[in-house]
Amino acid sequence: MSRIRAAFSRLNGGKALIPYITAGDPCPDTTLQLMHALAAAGADIIELGVPFSDPMADGPVIQRAAERALAQGVSLQTVLGIVRRFRESNADTPVVLMGYLNPVHKTGYAAFAQAAAEAGVDGVLTVDSPIETIAPLHAELQQHGIDTIFLVAPTTGEERIAEIAQLAGGFVYYVSLKGVTGSAALDTADVAAKLAVLRRHISLPIGVGFGISDAASAKRVAETADAVIVGSRIVREIEANPGREAEAAGALVKELKAAVEAV
C-alpha cells in the first residue's frame, strides 16, 4: 500500500489535512524543520512546492516564497535532498511535490522519477501538464510507484473528469476557485455541488484547495471534501514569523487539523 493510500486509510473515514509549503523558503534547513513541525501538528500529507521562476498558477504570497528560495539557488535537486533528509526520521507522512514541468523535463522523466522514488517522494503534481501531454512522465512515475496527482478546475467538464480519473493516483486536487493561489471568496455550496459531479467519475479521495484561509473555512470544506489543502495561508505565516517559522506554521496547522477533525 502506498503512503498516500495508507494515510487516508488511517483516517478511517475522517478528513485529511494537506498543508503546502515552498521548499527552500526561507532556507532548506528551515524547510526540513517545517516539514517535521507540520507532521507533528497533524498534517496527514505534506505538499512541498518546487520553486520555479515563472509560477503562473500562484498568487503573490507563494510567488514571493519561490523568489526567496530561488535567490538561494534552491533547485529540484535541492528539494529532493530535503525529502531524503526528512525520510531519515519520518517514514510514514506522504510527501507530494507540487510544481511546474520545466525542471522535471530538464532533468529527464526517467531520471527524475528514479531520483524522486529514491528520495521518498509519494506523489507529483505538475500544474502545467495536461492529460494530453503527460503520458511520458506518468509512465515513469507509475513505474517507480509514484502517484500522479491531477488538478480539476471549476470549469472542467465531465468528459475530461472521466479521462483524468483513468490516470490519477493518490488523490485528486479540486481547485475551488478560478484564479491563482491565495484567491478569496470561497463558496462552499459551489464546492459541494462540484464534488458531487466529480464523485460520479472519481473513486479516489478528493482534496479541495485555494481560498481556505482559516479554521472556519477549513471546517466548511471538510464537510464535503475528503481532504483540505491549505497553502498561501501557511506560507504567509512563515513569511510573517522570521526565526520562528516552524513554531508559527505548526501552531496554525494544529488549529486547522482540529477544525477538520471536528467534522
Automatic annotation (TrEMBL):
The keyword Zinc does not apply. Coiled coil: none annotated. Pathway: Amino-acid biosynthesis; L-tryptophan biosynthesis; L-tryptophan from chorismate: step 5/5. The active site is at E47, D58. Its EC number is 4.2.1.20. One of its GO terms (molecular function) is tryptophan synthase activity. Gene3D superfamilies: Aldolase class I (3.20.20.70). GO terms for cellular component: cytosol. Keywords: Amino-acid biosynthesis, Aromatic amino acid biosynthesis, Lyase, Tryptophan biosynthesis. It comes from the Bacteria. It catalyses: (1S,2R)-1-C-(indol-3-yl)glycerol 3-phosphate + L-serine = D-glyceraldehyde 3-phosphate + L-tryptophan + H2O. The keyword Amino-acid biosynthesis applies. PROSITE patterns: TRP_SYNTHASE_ALPHA. It is an enzyme of class 4 (lyase). InterPro entries: Aldolase_TIM, RibuloseP-bd_barrel, Trp_synthase_alpha_AS, Trp_synthase_suA. PANTHER family: TRYPTOPHAN SYNTHASE ALPHA CHAIN, CHLOROPLASTIC (PTHR43406:SF1), TRYPTOPHAN SYNTHASE, ALPHA CHAIN (PTHR43406). The alpha subunit is responsible for the aldol cleavage of indoleglycerol phosphate to indole and glyceraldehyde 3-phosphate. Belongs to the TrpA family. Tetramer of two alpha and two beta chains. This is Tryptophan synthase alpha chain. It comes from Kingella potus.
